[in-house]
Write a structure and sequence with these properties.
Strand order of the largest sheet: 2-4-1-5-6-7
Order of helices and strands: EHEHEEHEHHHEHEHHHEEHHEHHEE
Largest sheet: 6 strands, mixed
Radius of gyration: 23 Å
């Protein structure tokens, strides 16, 4: 299961967004810094409009969506890399996630205090990112002390690791995260054991007022967009308050409410699409009498790897995959009809799974 950490400075709307995404009131949301003092965790179904039509075709009422675990992490303050505020807690929880969701305040509200008194998305982004870089710099410097002694003996591996540490430190000195240090595949493998925070992929969330969801781009949103672009990162514009309001409505009333505001998609939908793009993930489906289910795999994964996402036995005993493209399955109306039309393909171990594939795996253990 994908585990995403929601981070940001105090009072940027992290907990409001977390509560909305997870449809709970589990995280305290208040108008003062550090209202979140620990990590709140919630598991969310990933919205996918393709699953229900597949369930109808398969004749099952059980739908199993792919899921993501969101972690609402305590707000960060300057000095977190040195353990100030809730820094140690904050950094520890980030290390346990696969994706960093960086919430940036892009709304004016005199009733919600800002730790720096004024609203400046670019400054806030730089503050949080600098703390992550400083924490990683401390990790690299500590590792350097150990490896430098070994490299002096002429050990090849130690010299190679020192070159890696030099490269990382050079990036940190320029204010760049480790993911932008230009590491080779071999260096990335070597850096894995360092568990660097800035190596994790990051997606930026511009948390705006309802009014800023439509119409011309505000200067606050522009700052987030431009910074994300400078990193080659994804960004999403969301109103955490609107998402919280949606939780209080009946599910069938939400589309109409969004439409009345000129909004076509929920923040969760936009966030998930952005996260999948950032992490290079796709979904495939299985559909039978017991259930219709969505599975998440890396883009470029081959059929045996997709089978392994379901169960290790399917990977171990993989024979072939019977594959139907989602659109063709819907058009045919059943797997049998798709097979009659020649739309069902028999694929082997080298088949690269495509987003939306409906697959039946044949295996023997």
């Amino acid at each position: 299961m994908l585990r995403a950490g929601i981070v940001g400075l105090p009072n940027v709307g992290k907990s409001t967004l977390f509560n909305a995404l997870t449809a709970t009131r589990g995280a305290e949301s208040a108008n003062y810094p550090f209202s979140t003092t620990g990590a709140n965790v919630g598991v969310v179904n990933l919205p996918d409009a393709r699953l229900e039509p597949l369930a109808k075709i398969a004749g099952t009422k059980k739908l199993v969506y792919a899921t993501v675990e969101f972690v609402d992490i305590a707000g960060l303050a300057k000095g977190a890399s040195r353990g100030e505020g809730l820094g140690n807690q904050f950094l520890h929880h980030i290390r346990e996630t696969e994706l960093i969701v960086h919430v940036v305040r892009c709304f004016e509200n005199e009733n919600v205090v800002h730790v720096d008194e004024t609203i400046s998305p670019q400054r806030d982004i730089e503050t949080l990112n600098l703390e992550l870089i400083l924490a990683d710099l401390a990790t690299v410097e500590k590792r350097r002390e150990r490896v430098s002694k070994q490299s002096k003996t002429g050990a090849k591996e130690a010299k190679e690791e020192m070159a890696l540490l030099d490269k990382l430190q050079g990036a940190f000195d320029e204010g760049k995260p480790a993911r932008l240090a230009g590491l080779t595949d071999d260096e990335l493998a070597r850096a894995y054991h360092l568990f660097l925070l800035t190596m994790k992929p990051m997606i930026y969330i511009a948390n705006v007022s309802e009014a800023d969801l439509t119409g011309a781009e505000s200067d606050f949103i522009r700052q987030v967009r431009e910074h994300a672009g400078s990193e080659g990162a994804d960004y999403v514009v969301i109103s955490a308050q609107l998402e919280a309001d949606l939780v209080d409505l009946e599910p069938e009333d939400r589309p109409q409410y969004l439409a009345s505001l000129g909004v076509t998609e929920t923040g969760l939908g936009k966030l998930i699409r952005g996260a999948y793009h950032t992490l290079g993930l796709i979904s495939f489906f299985t559909a039978g009498e017991k259930e219709a289910r969505a599975w998440t795999i890396p883009k470029g994964a081959k059929a045996p790897e997709a089978a392994g996402a379901i169960h290790s036995d399917l990977l171990r005993g993989f024979i072939r995959a019977e594959v139907i493209a989602y659109d063709e399955m819907i058009k045919a109306g059943s797997a049998a009809a798709a097979k009659e039309k020649g739309w069902m393909r028999l694929e082997g171990k080298e088949y690269v799974v495509r987003d939306g594939d409906v697959i039946l795996f044949r295996f023997n253990v």
